[in-house]
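PROTEIN ENTRY
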Amino acid sequence: MADLSTQQRDDLKDKDFAYVDKQGERHLPIHDEEHVRNAAARFSQTKFESTEAKRQAARHVMTAAKKFKVEIAQDDDVSKAAESST
């Protein structure tokens, strides 16, 4: 995976991340196919402030996956989180 430099990461918008926490830290970049795949793979390792934040982040990953034609299995953690109800 192509690493993002600090400048490249800073240049991304908040919408280019699956999750922005209450302190404004941005997690799981989803601005291209490679990063969507990585976000899905690392989703279960990410700490979220709430169940709702996790569900919203999962939905962002799934939306980006559809945009970039990345297939994510229904039994994947991110798929399950996106479908969960609060």
Notes: The chain has one domain: 16-83. Residues 16-83 form one domain. Residues 51-67 form the longest helix (17 residues). Residues 39 and 45 are 10 Å apart (CA to CA).
